[in-house]
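One chain is below:
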Amino acid sequence: MHIRLYKMGYKILGRRGSFLLRNFVSSTAYWLGISPKPSEYGKEEGISALVISYNDNDWLEPSLLSVNDLVEEYIVIDSSTDDTLKLLKEIKKTYGLNMKIIYTPPGNVVRARNLGLKHISYKWVLIWDPDFIAMDHMPRYLKELLNLLSPERYYLIYWPHICLDGDLFHCKPGRLYHIEHWLFTWSPEAKYFAKGRGIGSLLAPLKLYKPIFIREPLSFHLRTVRDPVKLLYKKYWKILRARNMTHKYKLEDFVK
C-alpha cells in the first residue's frame, strides 16, 4: 500500500513537488518531536559506501579510491561470475580499505541494496556503483556540507552525475545527468523496492527525510565506457530481468 501511494504521489507531484512536500512534512514531524533521532540507532558518525557489483571490474579500482577520503567503510554486495571478487580482495589488501564483501546471487538489485543496508555501520549511506568516479573536490565538499547539517535530522542529498557514454569525452544527447539521492541518513525505515524492470528505488518516509539538492555535478557516471562485450551482456541481462527470467537461465546460456 505504501509503495503504491509513493509511486502515485511522485508521479503527480514530480521531483520539485515531492521536495516541497518532504520538506514540510519532515520539518513538522521534527518540530513536533514525533520522529526518532538518528542517534537512537547507535550508528557511528561517518559514511558507509554501499557498492553493488556484478562483473564490474572496468573502473572498480579508481571508483572505490575516488571516495576513499570521504567514507569510513565500504559495504560491497557482490554477485560477480568473473574475476571481480578477486580484484575486490586485491584492492582491499593493497590499499588497506575497511571493506566488507558479501555475496548474494545475481538478479535482484533491490535485494542486494537492502542486504547492504543491514550491514551499514555508519550514520550516512553513500550509494556508489563501480562505474561512478568522484570529482577531486567531492569529498571535501560533502564533508563540509554534513558539518553544517543538524545531527538530529534525516536527509536525502541529491546531486547530478555527469554521464559519459562511449568514451571519456562524450555524453549522450538528452541524457547528460543522472540525478538521485546518492547520500542519505541511515534509518531502519528506509528500504528499497522494485520500481519497474527490477530497478530499485529508495522508499524513505516523508516524516523523516528532508531533501537537499546540490545543483553542481560532483561526480561522473561512466555509463557505457567499458568493454563492448560486457555492454552486450549487460543488455541481455536487462532483458532477462525485465522478463523476470533471471532464475530460469544463466546469462551465458541465454546469450548463446
In short: The chain has a mean pLDDT of 84.
